[in-house]
Amino acid sequence: MTWIKTIDLNDVEGELKTLYDQVKTPSGHIDNILKAHSLRPRTLVAHLALYKATIHTKPNALSPRERELVGVWVSRLNGCDYCVEHHRAGLARHLGSARLALELSAAIGKQASTPLTQREQALCAYATKLTKTPAQMEARDLDVLRNAGLDDAGILDLNQIVAYFAYANRTVLGLGVSIDGEPLGLHPDENEEGFKHQ
Fold this sequence. Notes:
This protein is mainly α. It contains 9 helices and no strands. Helix content is about 60%, strand content about 0%. The relative contact order is 0.19.
């Protein structure tokens, strides 16, 4: 599960119980990345707020497919299999095809003959540079995104998705969070308040 102690759903009370009730899956499961925060509920609150704001709240200039694709790619670059598996399953839900989700996530970083659109290639190129060499980012890196149809709010949306996954990946990798048979691809509804996964 993790390399540190976590508090199980059956043993929670108070604020943590309230938080767990908000995020448990329809089957009553709490994702291990969320349980990793159980000793400090305040960091779970902050993680959930950032997750919902960057990935599952409107308005967002990136489509659900693009958001999940960027998340899978950043997680692959960081070597975070946990997040790759979760968000590739989320991508498959949006596409209606696990095979296509696997094909798309495998195509990132390859030549134009891939099933990625030019816009998706631009999003992933920005995500690659920001993830691998952040100190080398330049103002002209945003020109490619503008040419791909993003306005400044869309560029901010992309930037925050990449930054969120850097955070989530390091939470997982730094604490040894494992997938351990978790249900994959569930996420909160971006049209509703709260974090209940569906």
